[in-house]
Amino acid sequence: MHLTTLLTVSLLPQLPYALSIPSRRAVDCSFGTSPDSGATCATFAKAWGISEDKLKALNPGIKCPGINTEGSYCVIGTITDGDDEPSPTTVGPKSTVPASTKVPPATKTTTTAVKPTAVKPTVTQKPSTTKQPSGNGIKTPDAIQEGMVTNCNKFHYVSPTTSCQGILNYNKISLADFVKWNPAVKSDCSQLWAGTNACVGVIGFTPSLTTTTKPKPATTTAKGNGIKTPGPIQEGMVSNCNKWHFVGEKTTCQGIVNYDKITLADFIKWNPAVGKDCSNLWKGTNACVGVVGSKPNPTTTAPSNGIKTPLPIQEGMVKNCVTFHYISSTTTCQALLKYRKITMEQFFKWNPAVTKDCSGLWKNTNACVGVK
Predict the structure, then answer these.
(1) How distant is the alpha carbon of residue 206 from its chain centre?
(2) Residues annotated as region Disordered (predicted)?
């Protein structure tokens, strides 16, 4: 009898049942980044000062508790609920399709990347993840800079702290070539997208050995002041310069500013060709770091709270800072937050110049990581 009952139940048709799919959500991501090796959803979320639920909400489809450390995930953004009502979905038993029946392919949804508007060295809006194997037979990684040339055979991954100048120096290419191969970055490289792969070499191209841009020929004197000027020099350098700094292969604008105790504003004023973001610093040239009558900045400052503040500091740093963190050439925002056990919101509040996506983090400066 019992066996008969089981058999009868097993022969009953399997009734479908309805599930409610939640309403759609839109995520306006302000900053995305990749987890460290060995990270989990929980540790990654904690490192950025958010809950694991918030991480999941910012990244629909993320698979936890493990996390793909090669991917890029939104950690700062706004979530808005859509207007669509939940729709019932009928779920039934797995069906078997005869071999002669062709199943139509699923509709592919294409996501159009929103063009970034920031003017920082690295833009954090991530474009659509796209594989573009070009006609040259070379596999192109995804995602890529929009409009990248199809004959590219060498790529450079752009992290949130990558700068155009850093790419040029490392790959020994010129800004003109980089813009030619990645036209979406614009001529001033203000639209470099973080979380993408940029083209840094094409078929038949041979990188230069040391310089990123050909400097002007050597000059022996600067006009008017009678002081012997070493050459070659930065193009457009002021004529009343009386102190110079040789730009080596690894020299950075911030390193020059720190070493010669001058401001970035003065350095750009005396060497206008470097550009407002100092992205056109020419290797193998002499840059002006002092003019007749100028005096270097002092080395320390004591703000109103009486705490001795090391220099240089992040621009606009709060006055009540009591703990500082030196930003080296390899320091990242995420590592700093982990080490100091602070959130991105706190770090931005104390150092507003870094911006909410941390793209304004200056190397070789001291940032505030604690207040009274």
Answers:
(1) 27
(2) 84-107
